[in-house]
């Protein structure tokens, strides 16, 4: 049991950055690596010796982020590749470029996301949050799967970020595009539940196929990042930052569940990792039993079938 004060100390299975094992020789793809949790994760992986591919939508922001990492980690192995998860052509181009240049992939961090924007659609006509947060990552993972399941990759990991908002989420299969009504927070919760269901269903399919790769879900709790900029990409205002700081934690702490899910030797696949403090809002990484109760294999299978049809990407497992 944790009493809510665990954000100030490590308990149980919790891990800090100093506990992350050496990542030399590993190739890591981080989506949304130009800010927030993605930037922090990319910095830590680079500091641990990994070859980090920063998948970014905005080239200028990506280069600025890379310079910040290089300043903190001299000799960091970084590559910037363009990726717009709201455009399936961009997703396909990213996967093709990666596979042509590298082939093997050890870690895929499905981190990027938009939160509570005004109603909008992706290049392919999907509701923006469902299309970017879920379908874009679904397609990316499927297209990179040969690199994740190659013999050279060994026990590769796919880490997909969800949110505590998934706890109130529901997949409305009759209104995925928002044409029958749209609520920004409702659709955000739906997209993050989709992330969770995808990660856990992927693990079931990897296990059934005998693949060595594993899939893990995680969430950062409430973290002071620019995800709260309503999809604009701008930094959150001072009032929002103060409010978040009172109930949440920093991007550095928010990144720990991702780093733990990606590197801890105790991970077996199919877990949901989140902060161990009260309500899962902040703290050190630990299994999130409350959020894991949202898993519904029947809904997950239906979502998988719909996602394959909408994206045109089939997982060959």
From TrEMBL:
Superkingdom per UniProt: Bacteria
Location of region: Disordered: 1-25, 272-295
Keywords for the protein's UniProt record, in alphabetical order: Oxidoreductase
Pfam families listed in its UniProt record: adh_short
GO molecular function, one term: oxidoreductase activity
Family: Belongs to the short-chain dehydrogenases/reductases (SDR) family.
NCBIfam families assigned: PRK05854.1 (NF004513), PRK06197.1 (NF004846)
Protein name: SDR family NAD(P)-dependent oxidoreductase
Species whose genome carries this gene: Paenibacillus antri
């Amino acid at each position: 049991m944790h009493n809510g004060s665990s954000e100030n100390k490590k308990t149980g299975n919790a891990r800090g950055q100093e506990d992350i094992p050496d990542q030399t020789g590993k190739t890591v793809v981080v989506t949304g690596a130009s800010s927030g949790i993605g930037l922090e994760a990319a910095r830590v992986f680079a500091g641990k010796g990994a070859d980090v591919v920063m998948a970014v939508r905005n080239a200028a922001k990506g280069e600025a982020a890379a310079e910040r990492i290089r300043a903190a980690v001299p000799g960091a192995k970084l590559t910037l590749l363009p990726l717009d998860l709201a455009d399936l052509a961009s997703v396909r181009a990213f996967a093709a470029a990666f596979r042509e240049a590298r082939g093997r992939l050890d870690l895929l961090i499905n981190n990027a996301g938009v939160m509570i924007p005004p109603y909008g659609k992706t290049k392919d006509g999907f509701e923006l949050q469902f299309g970017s947060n879920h379908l874009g990552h679904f397609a990316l993972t499927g297209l990179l799967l040969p690199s994740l399941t190659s013999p050279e990759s060994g026990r590769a990991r796919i880490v997909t970020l969800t949110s505590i908002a998934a706890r109130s989420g529901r997949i409305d299969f009759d209104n995925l595009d928002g044409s029958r009504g749209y609520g920004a927070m409702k659709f955000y919760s739906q997209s993050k539940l989709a992330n969770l269901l995808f990660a856990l269903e992927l693990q079931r399919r990897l296990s059934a196929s005998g693949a060595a790769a594993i899939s893990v879900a995680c969430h950062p709790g409430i973290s002071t990042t620019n995800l709260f900029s309503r999809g604009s990409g701008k930094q959150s205002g001072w009032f929002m930052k103060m409010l978040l700081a009172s109930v949440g934690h920093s991007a550095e702490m928010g990144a720990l569940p991702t780093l733990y899910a990606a590197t801890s030797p105790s991970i077996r696949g199919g877990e949901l990792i989140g902060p161990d403090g009260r309500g899962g809002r902040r703290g050190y990484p630990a299994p999130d039993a409350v959020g894991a109760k949202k898993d519904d294999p029947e809904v997950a299978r239906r979502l998988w079938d719909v996602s394959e049809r909408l994206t045109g990407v089939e997982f060959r497992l």
